[in-house]
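Box S1 | Example of a co-folding query
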Amino acid sequence: MTPITYELIKTCKQTGARLGKVHTPHGSFDTPMFMPVGTLATVKTMSPEELEDINAKIILSNTYHLWLRPGEDIIREAGGLHKFMNWDGAILTDSGGFQVFSLSDMRKIKEEGVHFRNHLNGEKLFLSPEKAMQIQNALGSDIMMAFDECPPYPAAYDYMKASVERTSRWAERCLEAHARKDEQGLFGIVQGGEYEDLRKQSARDLTSMDFPGYAIGGLSVGEPKEIMNRVLEFTTPLLPDNKPRYLMGVGSPDSLIDGAMRGVDMFDCVLPTRIARNGTCMTSNGRLVVRNAKYAHDFSPIDENCDCHVCKNYTRSYIRHLIKCNETFGFRLTTYHNLYFLLKLMEQVRAAIAEDRLGDFKETFFEQYGFNQPNAKNF
Ligand SMILES: [Zn+2]
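Box S1 (continued) | Returned holo structure for zinc ion
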């Protein structure tokens, strides 16, 4: 019996988006859901208590980074990642593959795995499907990800085909090496870039292995938005209805709505937390760069339509001042608001699906956020 199960509650008659629930050993969460990213066993500047306050039910953490620091043995000794970081909600860990391919330039991909250099000190390292499983088993995350290759965009067809086939072979090795099948669910990752037949091949290979959930990888790697939407349109129907679908690396409000409309259930991205530390906020009227001079005398909240703790108690002027002075508290306030904003957005998306009006919701939201303007920013 897999520890991860999915319940499809209903499908939006207007858009086809799915309302559902994912059950994990550390609680259940409603979908579509956004997962805040806690790379180094912390969502930067947020305490686990604050994550609970904003109703985060599942967070993501990074295998590669925790492998290097502090090392999986220390986390195992602590009793697993949940205990180590004092987070009792669900945790998803990635496989480390994405960082190996994005952070390290001296890498050699072989059938057995990937040889590369530590991005911190240049030391030689080797990551394989077996090693990625061993680390994630030590971390004890609720959802683990199979070790895959995430090819860059654009990638030539022949390269992509060879890569998809290797990723399928690696997925089998991951299943074989996974040592805690009753406690941790392992998701397969569908690759294939923008090529429909390769996405089909990847989905066929992986669904035949019967994972408890599937990710759609290789998107949000620099391709135009239309390509992401098109790939989702032909990929989600290839995945089983009774398993959750996770679109990796997506967290801009427009892409979350577009992804949900194409049948995606789970998302993660560093975007809301990263831009927060640059003094940029997501608001119901579009993005707001609170560090800008024009907010120096502005004593209104970041977002008048937001009922988060930050918007109820702090002003643009004060937050601008803190961020300009590099005060940690400023980063905490913008991070808190941005995560609250996205989690609230997903709540609104779920309510719209429940009432078969996600298409209407999208129209209103895009108009207000400014996505319909000709030179709208990407978030
Ligand atoms: Zn707020």
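The two ends are 40 Å apart (CA to CA). The first strand starts at residue 5 and ends at 11.
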